[in-house]
């Protein structure tokens, strides 16, 4: 089981940037693919991006491709989401999540559905003003 705590959310103007962090505790952080999701008021939780356990492979939703970048530091047990060129429609609570499968193989296959993830953080609010 991996415990996750997000930070870095806040209020930013359209066109600005934020970097979210997700600190993980528990063993074998590098054994789990990690993902970011977001949920806006009245909407379903939406997949944003995912990264393999070793960090070599990523997959990003079309809605944020070219603006958001996922990365991880396995030595620091931390997951990141760099968000650039933010838009008002990016406003949401952002969640990090750990794959429900340990050491998923092949490493270039990804969990993308919320039900594929076994551990979730509490979320951090991102608000983009126009």
Mean pLDDT: 95
Low-confidence residue ranges: none
Number of helical runs?
0
The fraction of residues assigned to DSSP E strands is: over 45%
SSE order: EEEEEEEEEEE
Roughly how much helix do the residues carry, as a percent range? under 10%
Our measurement of the CA-to-CA distance between the termini, rounded to an integer number of angstroms, reads 39 Å
Structural class: mainly beta
Structural write-up:
By secondary structure, this protein is mainly β. Helix content is 0%, strand content 48%. It has strands at 3-7, 10-13, 18-25, 34-39, 46-51, 58-60, 68-73, 78-83, 92-99, 117-120, 124-129. Strands 2, 4, 5, 6, 9, 10 and 11 form a 7-stranded mixed sheet that branches. A hairpin with a 4-residue loop joins strand 7 (68-73) and strand 8. The radius of gyration is 14 Å and the shape is globular. The protein starts with a strand and ends with a strand.
Which descriptors apply to this entry?
mainly beta; globular; 130 residues; four-stranded antiparallel sheet; seven-stranded mixed sheet
Short recap of the structure:
The protein has 130 residues and is mostly beta strands.
SSE layout and pairings?
Elements: E1 3-7, E2 10-13, E3 18-25, E4 34-39, E5 46-51, E6 58-60, E7 68-73, E8 78-83, E9 92-99, E10 117-120, E11 124-129
Parallel strand pairs: 2-11
Antiparallel strand pairs: 1-3, 3-8, 4-5, 4-9, 5-6, 7-8, 9-10, 9-11
């Amino acid at each position: 089981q991996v415990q996750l705590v997000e930070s870095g959310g806040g209020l930013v103007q359209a066109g600005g940037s934020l970097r979210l962090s997700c600190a993980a505790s528990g063993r074998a952080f590098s054994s789990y693919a990690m993902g970011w999701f977001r949920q806006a008021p009245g909407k379903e939780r939406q997949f944003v991006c995912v990264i393999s356990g070793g960090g070599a492979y990523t997959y990003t939703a079309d809605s944020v491709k070219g603006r958001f970048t996922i990365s991880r530091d396995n030595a620091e047990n931390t997951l990141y989401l760099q968000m650039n060129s933010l838009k008002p429609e990016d406003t949401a609570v952002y969640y990090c999540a750990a794959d429900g499968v340990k050491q998923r193989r092949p490493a270039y296959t990804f969990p993308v559905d919320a039900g594929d993830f076994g551990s979730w953080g509490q979320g951090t609010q991102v608000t983009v003003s126009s």
